[in-house]
Amino acid sequence: MSQAPDDDDSDVINLFKRGSDDDFDSTEWIDALLTRAIQSPGPRMRSAVASPTTVDDAEKERRKALLVAILTRSLQRLEEWMSEFANKPDVNFTVGRDRYTPLMLAAMRGDMEVVRILVERLKANKHAKTYRGDKSAADLAEDEEIKRYLSA
C-alpha cells in the first residue's frame, strides 16, 4: 500500500476491516485518508447532520487522533486521547459519506477492548445507524463476541 486510496468510503472501511495489525510503514496516505474522512459532509447530507457542518482544525486533529488509536488497536493511544481530551470526549461524531461512528469503525476493526472502552467509558452510542439508517456497529462487526456485546 504505497499509494493513497481514492476518496471513497470503501477505502476507510477496508482500512478498518483489516484483520491483522499490518505494518503501516507509510502513514502519509493513512493520514490523508482520515483527514478526508473527517471533512464536513457534502451538500446531500447537510440536512441530515445534527451537528454543525464545519469542523475546525483542532477538532479535526482530535477526531483523527481517536481514529488512529482505533486503527492501530492501541490502548495506550486511546488512554492518551482520553487524558488529552477529557474535557471534550465526544466519540459520537461521524466520518465519511455513510456517516460511520468511531464505534462502528472499532467494531469493524475487531478489537473488543477498544469497543468496550468506547461504550463503557466514553459513552459511544451503540444504536447509531449509518447514513441510510440500515446498519449499526453490531451489524458491521464480523467478530461474534463484538456482535453479541453491541446487541445486548
Average predicted confidence as pLDDT:
77
Q: Which radius of gyration do the C-alpha atoms yield?
A: 14 Å
Strand content: under 5%
Helix/sheet category: mainly alpha
- In CATH, the homologous superfamily goes by the name Ankyrin repeat-containing domain
CATH architecture type: Alpha Horseshoe
Highest CATH level, the class: Mainly Alpha
Task: Using the alpha-carbon principal axes, give the shape.
Answer: globular
Percentage of residues assigned to helices: 40-55%
The H/E string reads HHHHHHHH
Low-confidence stretches: 1-7, 40-52
Main features:
152 residues, mainly alpha, Serine Threonine Protein Phosphatase 5, Tetratricopeptide repeat, 8 helices, disordered N terminus
Provide a short characterization of the protein structure.
49% of the residues lie in helices and 0% in strands.
How does this model look, in words?
With 152 residues, this protein is mostly helical. It has a single domain (9-151), classed as Ankyrin repeat-containing domain (Serine Threonine Protein Phosphatase 5, Tetratricopeptide repeat). It contains eight helices and no strands. The chain has helices at residues 9-17, 28-37, 57-71, 75-84, 102-109, 112-121, 137-140, 144-151. Mean pLDDT is 77; it is low at 1-7 and 40-52.
List the helices and strands and how they pair.
Layout: H1 9-17, H2 28-37, H3 57-71, H4 75-84, H5 102-109, H6 112-121, H7 137-140, H8 144-151
InterPro entries: Ankyrin_rpt (IPR002110), Ankyrin_rpt-contain_sf (IPR036770)
Pfam families: Ank
Keywords: ANK repeat
